[in-house]
């Protein structure tokens, strides 16, 4: 499988992706735990069917020391006992925000309040940022049919 378009060879799309990457760097430098960021990225990528991003964030999480058991359970996090209450709240927020078209009104007040019990305002802002950025990446990569499986941790710097 080949991508429909190489985003890094396109003058326009490479600039767009560089902005996504810069936004992701802001979130990465926040106080939101890195493990939570990777769990959220993986879950949104699964929902959106983005194999490229699912591969990347699984491998980046393993490289950062995350267990395969926890990563394997991300798609079934509601039934899994391996996540903290804070991580569960972040995964729930990520799901509702990613599935915005499926839920009239978007993210419910209950889901937001649950996340706010576990994260301060800056961490909530980082959650909004990471969920927004991964959804943008997912949609771009799905449109381009970016092939999955060859990603190496740190490949993009």
TrEMBL record:
Alphabetized InterPro entries for the sequence: AhpD-like, AhpD_core, CMD-like
Source organism superkingdom:
Bacteria
MF-aspect GO terms: peroxiredoxin activity
Q: Which Pfam families match?
A: CMD
Carboxymuconolactone decarboxylase-like domain spans which residues?
Answer: 22-96
Q: What is this protein called?
A: Carboxymuconolactone decarboxylase family protein
Organism the protein comes from: Streptomyces reniochalinae
